[in-house]
Amino acid sequence: MLLSDVVETSARVGATRGRSAKVAHLAACLRQAGPEAIGTAVALLSGGLRQGRIGLGWAAVQAAMPAGAAEAPVLTLAELDAVLDRIAATRGSGAAQERTRLLHDLLARATRDEQDFLARAVLGELRQGALEGLMTDAVAAAAGLPAAEVRRALMVEGDLGGVARVALAEGAAGLARLGIRLFRPVQPMRAQTARDTADALARLGRSAFEYKLDGARIQAHKQGGEVRVFSRSLNDVTAAVPEVVEALGALPADSLILDGEAIALRPDGTPEPFQVTMRRFGRRLDVARMRASIPLSCFFFDCLHAGGEPIADRPAEARFAALRGAVPEPLLIPHCVTDDADAAAAFFDEAVARGHEGLMAKSLSAPYEAGARGSTWLKIKPAVTLDLVVLAAEWGNGRRQGWLSNLHLGARDPATGGFVMLGKTFKGMTDEMLQWQTGTLQKIATARDRHVVHVRPELVVEIAFNDIQASPHYPGGLALRFARVKRYRPDKRAEDADTIDTVRAIHQQRNGGAA
Length: 515
Prior knowledge:
Elements: H1 3-14, H2 19-32, H3 38-45, H4 58-64, H5 77-89, H6 95-107, H7 112-123, H8 132-143, H9 147-157, H10 160-176, E1 190-193, H11 197-204, E2 207-212, E3 216-223, E4 226-231, H12 242-249, E5 255-264, H13 274-278, H14 287-293, E6 296-306, E7 309-310, H15 316-326, E8 335-338, H16 341-353, E9 358-363, E10 373-380, E11 385-395, E12 404-413, E13 418-425, H17 431-443, E14 445-448, E15 452-455, E16 460-464, E17 467-470, E18 478-481, E19 484-488, H18 500-511
Parallel strand pairs: 1-10
Antiparallel strand pairs: 2-8, 2-9, 3-4, 3-5, 5-6, 6-7, 9-10, 11-12, 11-15, 11-16, 12-13, 14-15, 16-19, 17-18
Helix pairs in contact: 1-2, 2-8, 3-10, 4-6, 5-6, 8-9, 8-10, 9-10
């Protein structure tokens, strides 16, 4: 398959408004791709590279851009993928120059349209309205399969390119054999929001309530003496968390997959701020020194594999029993099962008094919905927050002169693959945060003028707010009132941000009417 086929499809998708028409364009392109090209095509049409970030920024891409261009398309996806693999693998002295040279040679074989497309793909600036949800539907359409089957496979496999390869080559039978396996991380289940414990009980009935820890989500896999730990975004973080490895290694169970949290605690057992915990997951770590200064504790709340077989499809009550049978009490998140409103409210007060975020409420009869924001898991916090994406930032005034201060905030729109702006905020930021975001936002800038820097929508920030009001000033018709930054969420991707549908539901719930 030629790169030009993907470039033309991307242009058509970007120019198309309707979801079903976008899916049709994408599916037609995927049907043309052979097994060796499908993963690359899926990644490019989703707005990125199969290799992820490859160590090339704006300056390097500009330096690599040749003066001329090919007159006709000749570059295949297989050739493109091979060069990108080489760039991603380049390390050591002179690596930056070698990456730039390899990209220059690649771009020299591309047409002008292909050059522009590749430059934006490398920089993460492809905005063609085909995020993962839309691509999942396109894979299903290309393979002639129900979208639900493809989504289920993606949840347990984690790699849409790999799922697409199986779907198109083997159909439903191939997808059916994909399942939860040891040392293959599963997309974590996520929660919707409840107003309070009474609301949670009204929606779920008798439920399991757990402390909601303000830590880093982890997924721990154990088989025999081998332990590996993965982050919320499915990155292997085993080397960064020796405490977790030791805790799992000491368990007698031969095979386990556990869902839980790693968190830094103070000597009195109260949690350190989220940012302190996240220092243990930085790119360059002196693990021994960091462990001494910021020791981690781990706590688990779900079990996806036990006794030599996956159990994610079993009811939560059965999974919790398997968890308690495999993991000692000190490694379990505090948990109670009740249908009594007073008992649930008291447990919530206890969690908050001990410095935690609030509670999780979970249906006892529901399976583990990997990758889904399921209605059978509800988060309950003293103040409602939303995980939103930074779309732009404005330069500050007064004592904030020289810092990017006022953030433009957006919710994810599953219908278009884009983001819907909900307002701005400059509140809740420390000087340390202002300094960090000024540097970080400029590194991912896509356009700028005298007052505003527009950025790639990839930074997720947790926003507290007092209310949501109807507003004609924003495309979604809604705006946050008294929004303030609680923290950045480096553990989350833009695809994990809350959706505009969630925002509308909160508005309707609070105001008794549709937005």
